[in-house]
Amino acid sequence: MHQLLNFHNEALLRQALTHRSYVNEHPGEKDNERLEFLGDALLNFVSGDYLYTRYPDMAEDEMTRRRSALVDEKQLAKFAVDVGLDLRMRLGRGAIQDGGFHSPNLLSSAFESVVGAYYLDRGGKIETIRPIIQDLFDSVPQAVLEIRSNVDAKNRFQEWVQANFDSVLPKYITERIGGQDHAPEYLARVLVGNRIYGTAKGRGKKQAEKQSAENALSKLRQHGLI
Questions:
Q1: Residue 109 labeled ligand binder
Q2: Which end of the chain is more exposed for a tag (fewer CB within 10 A), N or C?
Q3: CB-based contacts of 37, cutoff 8 Å, min separation 6
Q4: Strands (E), the chain
């Protein structure tokens, strides 16, 4: 059994594995949504600390991309399977019929919940969960991490927009705001409809637009939307 499943309070582990679809069919049970919120915050912190410490010379934008690759839905779902959460999840009948045990969304959510629950089970001490998560991060092949982190932020943001809006694409508004002729500085805003999702400056239009997309993705992660 993986160390992440070694709980003092088994009831807390059961809650972490309990999806709201199960609660709908079993009144009185508690779902894992609050634990998922806590686990998401912990993973963002631990991944940032991990990259900052492990790669002392890495630029901020590269660390941002790698953190996105370490804690995105696909990677967290893989961690969930590696740990053994896939068949332990408590799902409602409908979720099971829809393939819930193999759903990246449900798997990643369960993983975040178990991380949050383990943290609480160990007295709310970050040092108890940090080495376990870092070992999982270490298990991701560097080649895979580099390939996934290099996927352009504009493409990733466009994919999110297309998955969540009908017939809408991101629009970039970019203007020069200063700098020298040989090194102009630009400000880019990325909008969906009339709403601004990200803003950033850069030494060139492409850099500014790319960073605005990164900022948009970061905000989506903060709000639990990706």
A1: yes
A2: N
A3: 116, 224
A4: 171-180, 183-192, 195-202
The span from the CA of 147 to the CA of 21, in Å, is 35
Taking the whole predicted model, whether its pTM rises above 0.85 is answered as: no
By three-state DSSP, how is residue 185 classified?
A: strand
Phi/psi for 196 (5° steps) reads -85, 125
112 is in an annotated binding site: yes
Nearest to 114 by CA among 38, 222, 25: 38
- In tens, the pLDDT along 169-203 reads 999 999 999 877 666 788 999 999 999 999 999 87
Q: How many CB atoms lie within 10 A of CB 53?
A: 9
Q: How far is CA 131 from CA 4, 21, 46, 134, in A?
A: 11, 32, 9, 5
Helix (H, G, I), strand (E, B) or coil at 112: helix
Catalytic residues: 40, 112
Structure tokens at 15: 């809650």
